[in-house]
Design goal:
By secondary structure, the protein is α+β, with helices and mostly antiparallel strands. The protein is 41% helix and 31% strand. It is built from one helix and four strands; from the N terminus they run αββββ. The chain has a four-stranded antiparallel sheet with strand order 1-2-3-4, with helices on one face. It is rod-shaped. The relative contact order is 0.14.
């Protein structure tokens, strides 16, 4: 007489559970890494926005009134961004100002920064 075997043996179930656990851990690690990257990208995007805000403010100023400066910004998550801008007057030539805006912030104990460079010219004397 032959016995019909239905279902899975204990060994098969244990092997399947082990494979599932290994794959689940790998997927969980990927999700944690992806979340960290999204957070870093959000901070970088915010730094870019602050740098552009400073540059737009400088563009609205009178050409001869442009000066070096700094400011601190805080995003909606409470992260602090320090903006520093440098105005090189009449550089590289007369009636042209070279401007560098640097925004820095702390990310996991490391200082990150974004730098925006631009050249503004005086339209009329």
């Amino acid at each position: 007489m032959k016995r019909a075997s239905a279902g899975f043996s204990l060994i098969e179930v244990l092997v399947a559970m082990t494979i599932f656990a290994i794959v689940s851990l790998a997927v969980a690690k990927l999700m944690v890494d992806a979340t960290a990257i999204v957070s870093e990208n959000a901070a970088a995007s915010q730094a870019i926005a602050f740098a552009q805000e400073v540059m737009e403010h400088l563009r609205t100023m009178e050409f001869e009134d442009m000066e070096n400066g700094s400011d601190t910004y805080v995003d909606d998550k409470g992260r602090q961004f320090d903006a520093v801008w440098t105005v090189a007057k009449d550089s590289p030539q007369d009636y042209i100002n070279s401007i560098v805006v640097t925004v820095s912030w702390e990310e996991k104990g490391e200082t990150k920064y974004y730098e925006l460079k631009n050249v503004l010219t005086q339209i009329s004397n």
